[in-house]
Amino acid sequence: MESSLTKCPHCGKTNRIPAAAAGHPRCGNCGKDLPWIVSASDADFPVVAEQSSVPVLVDFWAAWCGPCRMVSPVLDRLAQDRAGKFKLVKVDVDTSPGLSRRFDIQAIPTLLVIKKGTVAARQAGAPPAAALRSWLDEALAANPG
Length: 145
Description:
Layout lengths: L3 E4 L6 E4 L18 E4 L5 H6 L5 E6 L4 H16 L5 E6 L4 H6 L7 E6 L2 E7 L4 H13 L4
Parallel strand pairs: 3-5, 4-5
Antiparallel strand pairs: 1-2, 4-6, 6-7
């Protein structure tokens, strides 16, 4: 599990963000919520995603996938717009075949919303940004399983 550096969109301060932690990341300078965007693999997915204290949006993607490259900036923007509301976890299907099998990923991109360790919503394909935003908002608002 690696931490990443994230620039606060409010004050510009660079913050170290852990892949897994209790709560959600806040800027050490201004105290505002930070977007939580991390990568996970077969080895660390349970700790990074399934044991998360906030809902998780999992993006199953691959570098060679054109639709994945179209969806990725939309997901990054959603993570910024909804900082503190969810964690965006990106899983490269080429380097994490175990997760692809476990979640029966048939097409990419495939998105999952995980709440309290349980898959609460699933979306395959690359919908338009507005549809993706609505899907995520509904999934985050719904009570887990």
